[in-house]
Amino acid sequence: xxxxxxxxxxxxxxxxxxxxxxxxxxxxxxxxxxxxxxxxxxxxxxxxxxxxxxxxxxxxxxxxxxxxxxxxxxxxxxxxxxxxxxxxxxxxxxxxxxxxxxxxxxxxxxxxxxxxxxxxxxxxxxxxxxxxxxxxxxxxxxxxxxxxxxxxxxxxxxxxxxxxxxxxxxxxxxxxxxxxxxxxxxxxxxxxxxxxxxxxxxxxxxxxxxxxxxxxxxxxxxxxxxxxxxxxxxxxxxxxxxxxxxxxxxxxxxxxxxxxxxxxxxxxxxxxxxxxxxxxxxxxxxxxxxxxx
Amino acid sequence: xxxxxxxxxxxxxxxxxxxxxxxxxxxxxxxxxxxxxxxxxxxxxxxxxxxxxxxxxxxxxxxxxxxxxxxxxxxxxxxxxxxxxxxxxxxxxxxxxxxxxxxxxxxxxxxxxxxxxxxxxxxxxxxxxxxxxxxxxxxxxxxxxxxxxxxxxxxxxxxxxxxxxxxxxxxxxxxxxxxxxxxxxxxxxxxxxxxxxxxxxxxxxxxxxxxxxxxxxxxxxxxxxxxxxxxxxxxxxxxxxxxxxxxxxxxxxxxxxxxxxxxxxxxxxxxxxxxxxxxxxxxxxxxxxxxxxxxxxxxxxxxxxxxxxxxxxxxxxxxxxxxxxxxxxxxxxxxxxxxxxxxxxxxxxxxxxxxxxxxxxxxxxxxxxxxxxxxxxxxxxxxxxxxxxxxxxxxxxxxxxxxxxxxxxxxxxxxxxxxxxxxxxxxxxxxxxxxxxxxxxxxxxxxxx
Lengths: 293, 449
Hints:
Chain A is of the alpha+beta class. Chain A has 11 helices and 8 strands.
């Protein structure tokens, strides 16, 4: 009996040693040389694997970044400039600081402004809903309200406001990874620069219908009247397909367009003081009079 | 009891053909019609009239926008009021020609009498041209231009023409009434299609829940004396009227993934299409109207109406006494494949076959529970797909795996959803994924070019 036990142990031990040796030799022979910097870069990344950079995850980003000749096409929106500085230090590249971005919901079709014209009782997903029809309000472009963006956000930065039926972005939590923007079938969520001290002006509507149609569907819609384009002295606003768009890089945050917009589709956020529309209108009027003289 | 049916999958919902006794009735003309420029598969038609033009019934108002496209004719006589986008059944803006109706003046050369013309012209090319000029599209639901279907690619040979009179969707009765009331015209239409495809045999497939239609068509074939046209009584099963399913049921041939029916020698046309072919070839009458079943248990004035293309839905419903109070949903088409109407101000299309009213109880969806791996959906799928798998892949956005598992073959019949005991919205997810996969395939093809 004892003999059997001893023999068993001996055979298994010898087998183990031999196989270990074989494995070691095979591993040595077929070793894959990997750039050690990949591991270092991956460690410097936030590790959220959110895909906001356009790569499958942090490791895929690291592999690509190590091979790339410069870091122009690589930016981690979650880690921001600090992370990119670390990555650049590891790889010996230079990196330009990028303005931090934030998700902006470009629809203000609240329940009161955009009345329901039918009830959706299908599967509660914006993607499914968008594939079926234009939505339960008169506006075929606006928020569908099923919260695909909320589900897509890994950072808990989005929530649905039950009162307005629209998603709300928590700017503290939003990393600008863009997952919500990709999840939205109506493309109403846009990544925009956060702006100086969080101040920014944007058109909160994506309705491409002509004025009367848009207005009928939603009180807060951009009706494409073009007053903002005429008002803007910085050429920051373009009008295309009956919808105004403010170029954040040209906007000087004067808020004149916001004051002049007849439907209130232009929103200014992050400003210390609320907008005094009358004062701004007065200012524009005076400027025009001066120009005429 | 008939044994002819397709070989895999399928379900058997109650047929609910409650409007089967209602004879087809002509709907009075609406004051305004809105004719959509994209009411067929393929490129939208291009308008050839301008605002302010006077048009007559049957006059061409839009030309095909490509090879796979169709002519569109005015369904009324009057003045073109506008050519502008208008919300369709799903609420999405579509280009429409709005015509104010003034009288009922038909264009020259259209035979509006009821005389039956049995002599079929001999020149097949001229017949196909007439079908093309008549704007005939498949009226079974897919609205594929018929002249394209009748011009098979070189090298392919047709062995049999199948006229689809299954009407396997519950509630729908417009094809049944057409068979009963216009049986002669349908049979002549079938004979024309048969001749065009090279005098091959022709089968008119009718489900056995319509014995009157089977008897009537048999009688008509005997009376008209056409050879090579027979009637096949089919076992009741949904989706028998699906093109690939019907070919399997009638010819015992399976159409491969992504292949066309002509690859196995079959051409399938709907009963209403056969009637439209008769009208276009024998009477020079383009598609200006089609029969629409208006039904539902909660709808008191069920009817089969002959409706001019572009008639607003609200006008049809008001004519029949308005939307019943307990109806919560209007569906364009049958309960299995039809789509909920989001906008009652939308107008009918050539392919609109039914308006179905459902109550809150009928449309109630049971809460979704977990998949118990029972495999009922896979058993029910008539295309032999695995809906439970496709559903999971769709949720995970795995487009490549979806394509490998042939999501693009899904015919959206809804058998999986109908049979699922866990009430998982299989079709909703699969349909969405199918759209994404088809988009990816198209993008790949475009990149290759």
